[in-house]
Sequence to fold (322 residues):
Amino acid sequence: MQFPVTRLRRLRKNAAIRNMVRETILTRNDLIMPLFVCPGEGVENKISSMPGNSQFSVDLLVKKCRELYNKGVQSVLLFGIPETKDETGDVACQHNGIVQQAVRALKKEVPELYLIADVCNCEYTTHGHCGTIVDGDVDNDLTLDTLARQSVSLAEAGVDMVAPSDMMDGRVGAIRTALDENGFKNTPIMAYSAKYASAFYGPFREAAESAPQFGDRKTYQMDPANGDEALREVELDIQEGADIVMVKPALNYMDVIQSVKANFNVPVAAYNVSGEFSMVKAAAEKGWIDEKRIVLELLTGLKRAGADIIISYHTQDIIEEL
Fold:
């Protein structure tokens, strides 16, 4: 039927009818809040390029997480800033690593909160790359050992899920095997399956103190021009045992999110990254946009594209609106 028999505005007349026919509904269950944990006690280092975000020592991280949980945040993604770094990231595998300490404290003090730990080496290496350097580049297979041991150590600390973000070939399989062999068959893996070599990570590298000291990450993170390659990466990660696959960044890659969701029958996560977050904050501080409306529209768009899970620094600002 065509106009005037069909009038689509009938379904937009008021809030009640709009709510009834809404196709995409964003809820607090969809959101994960990323957080940064650092050494010390009583430490809160504000992140200048990410307003409202800080590095927290374990004691203040516990306080922050309790506040977030009471607001309705059900899950957090943890990144660590260690006291010392090394050439291979082995410090991230230690029993008393900074994230391991945080996990144990949070499981004791905020046991209902679902804890996900990022698994990578860039925050823990002196050179800032995501693995062991051989002849000026990251050696893929040597790095798998560190990632697997880091994942087991985090599982031993009590983390609910591990999330490898390094983009090494074969790392999901190596982590799945290590977890299973050490009695953690029920620990899920959320793989950063399609992680692009993006310019949107700048503020995060300040937050995590993880900027590479030489070169870039283009030999292991994906070319932003490629979409089909993302499907190959996702398929391999699923075959190796990934329970959830992720696309990172989110906004410039909504087509990839949609393709992944259409092609694979697994939960899909989207990481609304630091640069995307900071641009919204900067425009809001200038008074150029309505921040809450923009954020709700942005996050709803990611869900409409196919994301089941959204990792976003906006979570703490928007959770009570949901």
Observations:
- The domain at 23-321 is CATH 3.20.20.70 (TIM Barrel).
- The chain has a mean pLDDT of 96.
- The chain has one domain: 23-321.
